[in-house]
Amino acid sequence: MKIFISGPVSGPMEERGFLFVYNRFLAVENKISENFPDAIIYNPMKMCSQRWSWLRCMIKCLWVLVQCEGVYMLPNYHESKGSRIEHKWATFFKKKIIYLTTI
What we know:
By secondary structure, the protein is an alpha/beta fold. 51% of the residues lie in helices and 16% in strands. The chain has helices at 10-16, 18-35, 44-47, 54-65, 81-92; strands at residues 2-6, 40-42, 70-73, 96-99.
C-alpha cells in the first residue's frame, strides 16, 4: 500500500522552522510504519528540497498523491492552501483519507 502524508508546511515552517515541520512529518511517517510495516510512505518533507518553489513542491506532491491508495491528513490541514488542494485531489481520485487528530 502506498500512503501520502499531507499537512501544513509553509506556515509552520515560517513560524517554527524547518526542523519542527520535518520532525512533525517524520513522527507521522514512523507511526504509519509501525501500523503498516509493508506500506510505502511518501513524506513531502523528504520528497521536496527547501530550495524548491511552493509550486514545484505541489506538482511533485500531487503527482505522487495520485499514485497512492491512501492519504493521511495532518491536524489543521484545512489551514494550508496546499493541503486543501491535496485533499480535493484525494477526494476526486477516491483515495482513502485518514484524518489525524493528533501527532
